[in-house]
Amino acid sequence: MNESVRQLEKRLNEKAPSIRLPYWVGFSGGFTFYLLGKLSGRKFSISSVRVKKYCTITQFNLSTAHLSGFNPPYKITEKDLTGHLKRNL
């Protein structure tokens, strides 16, 4: 996660906020919004499930793809995301 943030900061020439919350604070806040949503019938954009998904490490196994002959045209860290991010943010 930290490496991704550093790559984006470098490519966008911007600094990410330095505020970091402990996991339990984010999860508790998400759970609070979940309960408020259940009680009020509204949907909130933050929930404990989203906090949990955001904090998990994403890994994928490409061994099957490589065995089938797939060669990626670039590594994820080499791709210039600047234009894509500015268009989609």
What's a concise summary of this model?
By secondary structure, the protein is mostly helical. Helices cover 55% and strands 0% of the residues. The protein has one domain (2-88).
What does this structure look like?
With 89 residues, the chain is mostly helical. The chain has one domain. It is 55% helix and 0% strand. The protein contains five helices and no strands. The longest helix has 18 residues. It is extended. The two termini are 19 Å apart.
Helical fraction equals: 55-70%
- Overall mean pLDDT: 79
Find the count of extended strands (DSSP E, 2+ residues): 0
Structural class: mainly alpha
CA gyration radius, whole angstroms: 18 Å
Share of residues in strands = under 5%
Largest sheet: none
Q: Count of helices? A: 5
What number of structural domains do the residues give? Answer: 1
Kindly report the oligomeric state of this protein.
Answer: single chain
In the predicted model, the low-confidence regions spanning at least 5 consecutive residues are none
Terminal CA distance? 19 Å
Element-level helix/strand string: HHHHH
Question: Can you tell me the overall shape?
Answer: extended
